[in-house]
Amino acid sequence: VLLCALTLLLVSAPVAHALGAGARPVAQIVIAALFSAMLLSAVFQVSRSRVAQIIGLTLAGPVLVLQWINAWLEMDRIAVANHVLAILFLGYVVIVIVKLLFTSTRATSDTICASACAYLVLGVLWAVVYSLVQILDPASFAFALAEEGQVGSMRFGTERSVFAIYYSFVTMSTLGYGDIVPASGSARMLAAVQAVMGQLYIAVLVARLVGLHISQSATRR
After folding, report:
1. Gene3D superfamilies, per this entry (predicted)?
2. How confident is the model over 172-196, as a mean pLDDT?
């Protein structure tokens, strides 16, 4: 369920952008609805105990409320609070999933789906981080296709969410097309950290899955 919710969120981002600024309220409602679905599915999918579920709901609740308030009012203060809380919740989800992966004793379809979910959630988390950085410093990113004198936007939760998500996954996979580049020191450092984190995640994950597969093969013999 979480993997489906994440996929829908990623697919909807370019659709929301295609609707354009003229349909901004509709685009923001679509993004808010799918992000809310992702939050709720994350709470119930990764929570294996009552305590974990309570922690998840406690972190996700304020994000849900602020997400919908921001969809209607779009105030910077509300957006900043929403972004910070969303980062905390998504970070919690990643930690819980990674812990599940490293305590699992078998490589199953659930393990593979969980590893994919953790990677996608990590990408969304960094998209929110970059969006927050740009809200605090609008000149922190340079857009190659932005018109002269204008500053491109990548605010998460709006029809411009696609740019934050796009930049996050391009950075994490170290593609680096160069159409969006970090212009401030903090943005550059965050991009470097994400690039290293993305490569380490894949390397460690592959090692873990191979280890589980070898362990299963030895047990069968």
Report:
1. 1.10.287.70
2. 91
159: three-class secondary structure by DSSP = coil
> Average pLDDT of the chain?
85
CA-nearest of 83, 60, 180, 172 to 133 is 83
Say whether 167 sits in a helix, a strand or coil: helix
d(CA 124, CA 106): 27
Q: What is the pLDDT of residues 122-157, one digit of tens each?
A: 999 999 999 999 999 988 998 886 544 445 688 888
String of DSSP letters for 124-136:
HHHHHHHHHHHHH
0.70 exceeded by pTM: yes
The whole-angstrom distance between residue 65's C-alpha and the CA centroid of its chain comes to: 18
Please give the single-letter amino acid code of residue 165: I
Length of the chain: 221
Q: How far, in Å, are 69, 134, 170, 172, 190 from residue 195 at the CA level?
A: 32, 19, 9, 5, 9
How far is residue 140's CA from residue 130's CA, in Å, rounded to a whole number? Answer: 9
Identify the domain containing residue 182 by its residue range: 2-220
Q: Which residue has the tokens 């992702």?
A: 38
CA distance 172 to 112: 19
**Structure tokens that stand for 107 in this block:** 């490589």
Q: Which residues of 89-106 are buried (b: 16+ CB within 10 A; e: fewer)?
A: bbebbbebbbebbeebee
